């Protein structure tokens, strides 16, 4: 079975990868059938031949999860369309504080609605 997967290159703690078509039983640094491009996760730099990769998929090659993500987020010119996540991770303490503030705000709005409803029949 053919796989489209990453072949690790680069020095220790500074990985870069080549995107290759290779037999699934071949070791990671083994000889590929075809090289489709490269990907550097540190700089988010990528050059990828998407049309050739799609041809290999039609022939039966299975992309790995990472390569499938790269194929999905690849622009027409072969570069990565990287979108930085806008959500900010909070610590458990900060999450609890934010939840308590949201709960207090919801309770205050509910009390304001109840007070407005109580005044409306009294005026009529």
Automatic annotation (TrEMBL):
Region (Disordered): 104-124
Species for this entry: Candidatus Scatousia excrementigallinarum
Entry's Gene Ontology molecular function annotations: structural constituent of ribosome
NCBIfam families referenced in this protein's UniProt entry, alphabetically: S16
Biased composition (Low complexity): 114-124
Gene Ontology CC: one annotated term: cytoplasm
Biased composition (Basic and acidic residues): 104-113
Stored SUPFAM superfamilies: Ribosomal protein S16 (SSF54565)
Keywords: Ribonucleoprotein, Ribosomal protein
Family from the record: Belongs to the bacterial ribosomal protein bS16 family.
Protein's GO biological process: translation
Identification of the protein by name: Small ribosomal subunit protein bS16
